[in-house]
From TrEMBL:
This is SDR family NAD(P)-dependent oxidoreductase. The keyword Transferase does not apply. Residues 203-225 are annotated as: Disordered. It comes from Pseudonocardia yunnanensis. Keywords: Oxidoreductase. It comes from the Bacteria. Residues 213-225 have a biased composition (Basic and acidic residues). The keyword Protein biosynthesis does not apply.
Length: 225
C-alpha cells in the first residue's frame, strides 16, 4: 500500500519547480518505484494486493492544488495499467479515495467560507473509518476486484465511476468545426461534466459513524490523505 503524501499548495502559475518536484515525487514517483520493486515477487507468487491511496482531487480537481491533482491522477493511470498487466497473475490493484481529517488536510488554508465549512465538517471523518476497506482490499476476500476506485467518507462506502465514452455523435461525412459546435452544444451537452472541485462535490457533511467513545480513533492521526 502506497500512502506517502505531502502538500505544497499554489496556483498553477505561482507554484515553483521545487513544489511540483516534491509533490509528484512523494505521491506518484514513489508509487511507481514501490510497484516496480514489489511486482516481481508478486508475479512469482501469483498473488498480491496493491492499493494506491489516491484522492478526489486527482479525479475531480481542486483549485490551488495543481501538483497534487496531477500526482493523484497519475496514480489512477498507474492503477489501471498495473491492474491490466497483473490480472492474470492473481494480483489485484485498486485506487483508494479516503476522506479523513489528518495533519496534512488540516494544513489546507481555508481560502473561502465554503472551504472553511468543508474543513469543519471534515473533522468527523477519521482515518480509522477508512481502515476496514483497506484491510479488505489487502485480503483474500477481495479476489477478482481489481482496477477499481473505491472510497470511504465517514459511514459511506462509495464506488467511483471511471472515464468512459458516455455519448456519441456520428456523421458519415465527418465533422467541421461548426458541426462539432452543433454536436457538443446539442446532443452531447446533456452529458457534459460539471466543472466542480472536490470541495464542491462533497460540500455536505459525510454520513457520521456512530462511535461508542468520542475518543475512538484519536490515536490514528496520520499524514496520509
Amino acid at each position: 500500500m502506497h500512502a506517502a503524501g505531502t502538500l505544497r499548495d499554489g496556483l498553477l502559475h505561482t507554484a515553483g519547480d521545487d513544489d511540483w518536484d516534491e509533490v509528484l515525487g512523494a505521491h506518484l514517483h514513489v508509487g511507481v518505484q514501490l510497484t516496480r520493486a514489489l511486482v516481481p515477487a508478486m508475479r512469482e507468487a501469483r498473488w498480491g494486493r496493491i492499493v494506491y491511496v489516491g484522492g478526489a482531487a486527482g479525479l475531480v480537481g481542486s483549485v490551488g492544488q495543481g501538483a497534487y491533482d496531477v500526482a493523484k491522477a497519475g496514480l489512477f493511470g498507474l492503477m489501471r495499467g498495473a491492474a491490466l498487466e497483473l490480472d492474470r497473475r492473481g494480483i489485484t490493484v485498486n485506487y483508494l479515495v479516503p476522506f479523513a481529517y489528518t495533519r496534512m488536510t488540516a494544513s489546507i488554508p481555508p481560502a473561502t467560507p465554503a472551504l472553511e465549512r468543508f474543513k469543519q465538517h471534515a473533522r468527523s471523518s477519521r482515518p480509522c473509518d477508512v481502515a476496514p476497506l483497506v484491510a479488505w482490499l489487502c485480503s483474500e476476500r477481495s479476489a477478482g476486484v481489481t482496477g477499481q476506485v473505491l472510497g470511504v467518507r465517514g459511514a459511506e462506502l462509495g464506488l467511483w465511476s471511471q472515464p468512459r465514452p458516455v455519448q456519441h455523435a456520428v456523421r458519415s461525412e465527418g465533422f467541421t468545426p461548426e458541426l462539432v459546435d452543433v454536436a457538443v452544444r446539442g446532443a452531447l451537452s446533456v452529458q457534459l461534466t460539471p466543472l466542480e472541485s472536490e470541495f464542491d462535490l462533497f460540500a455536505e457533511p459525510a454520513p457520521p459513524v456512530s462511535r461508542a467513545d468520542s475518543t475512538d480513533c484519536d490515536h490514528d492521526r496520520s499524514d496520509s490523505r
